[in-house]
Design a protein that fits this description.
- By secondary structure, this protein is an all-alpha fold.
- It folds into 2 domains: 181 residues, no CATH class; 45 residues, no CATH class.
- The chain is 67% helix and 0% strand.
- The protein is built from 14 helices and no strands.
- The two termini are 29 Å apart.
Length: 254
């Protein structure tokens, strides 16, 4: 889904830091140095990400999934909260209605990636399509937000986002197995580890601060999300908050 709006928003900015010789086309548009930098930047999030993955493994075990089922789902789907919610609500018998509900729920939760994908266009736009759209499958919030800060600091190597996403994927898959093994004994909430990722996003907002005018979209998005949560319930706050914040942020942009 992240690839939909990535394609829709072209950009003239190049992500290549060195000119490519005309006689020999470059085989790679990103560097291992930036990959390593992105991976290292993600390390502080590992405890929270691991706790998050354990939560999914625990839910999968309680629902009767096999370890293989849980690991394959984490490796292929790689969708965080959407996996937890869908598996937790997994029906005993699949029907057309049950599949429709699961599909709609997944779409609503993951619709945020439409905007996240568009935001990654400046960093990834110069890459070959095969590399870009392969990476977008592994795009989640930490690489996106870390990449925004990376670009604000003058970075333009897509390898940074790749390294961050690689760490997130590995941690998610490994922690799924750990949570599955612990089963009902796994309770990350008991130790407050589930707060690591929200704390990270709150801290990242500080580094992305560009003055009160730029923060209007943040405030509107937050207010709309809270209001939607109280008024509608479910996960509509994800869609409505993101849309409201993006629209207002675009209108107030200088």
């Amino acid at each position: 889904m992240a690839g939909v709006l990535f394609w829709a928003f072209p950009t003239g900015r190049t992500c290549v830091t060195h000119p490519r010789p005309m006689s020999k086309p470059a085989k790679s548009y990103w560097t291992f140095g930036a990959f390593r930098e992105g991976a290292v930047a993600t390390f502080p999030l590992v405890p929270g990400l691991f706790a998050f993955g354990m939560a999914f493994g625990t839910v999968a075990a309680r629902k009767g999934f096999s370890l293989w089922d849980a690991e394959v789902m984490s490796a292929i789907v790689f969708s965080g909260v959407a996996q937890i919610i869908v598996v937790d609500a997994w029906p005993q018998q699949l029907s057309f209605a049950a599949i429709a509900v699961v599909t709609l729920t997944t779409f609503v939760i993951c619709s945020r990636f439409l905007l996240i994908g568009a935001a990654m266009r400046p960093l990834l736009g110069a890459l070959p399509a095969a590399q870009t759209y392969t990476f977008l499958h592994f795009l989640v919030e930490p690489p996106w937000l870390l990449s925004l800060r990376y670009q604000r600091n003058g970075g333009d190597d897509p390898g940074f986002a790749f390294g961050s996403a690689a760490v997130c994927w590995i941690v998610w898959v490994v922690s799924t197995g750990a949570g599955f093994g612990l089963g009902s004994a796994a309770d990350p909430h008991r130790f407050g580890l589930d707060m690591v990722v929200p704390a990270f996003f709150s801290a990242m907002l500080v580094s992305l601060w560009q003055g009160p005018r730029k923060a209007i979209g943040w405030a509107v998005g937050g207010v709309v999300a809270v209001a939607a949560d109280f008024a509608l319930g479910g996960y509509w706050y994800v869609v409505l908050g993101a849309l409201a914040g993006s629209i207002v942020g675009g209108l107030t942009d200088e």
